[in-house]
């Protein structure tokens, strides 16, 4: 039986003036899979991911996320959907003036009712930090954390709302090879534990090899190839080869 689609992008166009970034882009993401979007710098990977969660409005096309047509949602519906779709920013987007605990409580304040916030919230914070192996950082400030630890805390903050889909924007950029590998392994661990689907934007070949079930290649605003990492690295197509050589 075919798996359910958690994200469907159809005939997506997005230009900035004369810069035609996405030109009839199509994509399907199935439940439980880690899909990598690979593309050269400036090819439109971040624009795509921002269109998916409506941070950027497409010029035309249709995006359906978890059964909802993104173009038709009002602000309340969009806020609710964003609890189910975690977004790990390239910059991590932690609040520097807040402790790790306060950073993790932040999304709960927005999405949970007041009723039994305290007990459940503290438990959720602890569990999310344990998931990323950083239980001891609860009262630390972001400035006290290494780059890899910041990335883990940012992931914990994404996990705390138990998203069904996670969008990772270049999760290993700026990290050393060993830390990159640890983050890639953590992405796989999250997929296995929570059965989440993920869109991972990356040009880190090790990260792609470790995390991807499928790779989509974004070239000239379109989906140029859609295959497994193992098949793509064996391709003879020079445009595909250029990513791997
Ligand atoms: N808000 C914006 N206004 C104008 N142009 C933009 C905007 N956002 C992105 N662009 C342009 O869209 C193109 C694609 O940008 P995008 O950030 O998606 O690239 P990318 O594939 O994620 O690159 P990188 O791997 O370097 O992060 C670039 O030419 C960029 O200048």
TrEMBL record:
Protein name: Methionine ABC transporter ATP-binding protein
UniProt keyword annotations, A-Z: ATP-binding, Nucleotide-binding, Transport
GO MF assignments: ATP binding; ATP hydrolysis activity
Residue ranges of domain ABC transporter in the record: 7-245
Alphabetical list of InterPro entries matching this protein: AAA+_ATPase (IPR003593), ABC_transporter-like_ATP-bd (IPR003439), ABC_transporter-like_CS (IPR017871), P-loop_NTPase (IPR027417)
Gene3D superfamilies on file: P-loop containing nucleotide triphosphate hydrolases
KW NAD (keyword) present: no
């Amino acid at each position: 039986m075919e798996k359910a689609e958690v994200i469907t992008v159809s005939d997506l166009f997005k230009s900035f003036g004369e810069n035609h970034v996405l030109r009839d882009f199509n994509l399907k993401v199935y439940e439980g899979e880690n899909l990598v979007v690979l593309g050269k710098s400036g090819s439109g990977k971040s624009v795509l991911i921002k269109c998916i969660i409506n941070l950027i409005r497409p010029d035309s096309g249709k995006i359906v996320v978890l059964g909802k047509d993104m173009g038709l949602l009002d602000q309340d519906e969009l806020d609710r959907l964003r609890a189910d779709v975690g977004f790990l920013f390239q910059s991590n987007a932690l609040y520097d003036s807040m402790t790790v605990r306060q950073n993790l409580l932040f999304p709960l304040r927005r999405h949970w009712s007041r009723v039994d916030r305290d007990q459940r919230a503290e438990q959720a914070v602890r569990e999310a930090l344990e998931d990323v192996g950083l239980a001891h950082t609860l009262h630390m400030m972001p400035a006290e954390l290494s780059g890899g630890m910041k990335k883990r805390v940012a992931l914990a903050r994404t996990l705390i709302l138990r998203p069904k889909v996670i969008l990772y924007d270049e999760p290993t950029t700026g990290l050393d090879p060993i830390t990159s590998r640890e983050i890639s392994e953590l992405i796989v661990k999250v997929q296995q534990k929570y059965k989440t689907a993920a869109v991972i934007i990356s040009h880190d070949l090790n990260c792609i090899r470790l995390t991807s079930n499928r790779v989509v290649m974004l070239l000239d605003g379109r989906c140029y190839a859609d295959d497994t990492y193992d098949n793509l690295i064996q391709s003879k197509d020079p445009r595909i080869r250029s990513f791997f050589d």
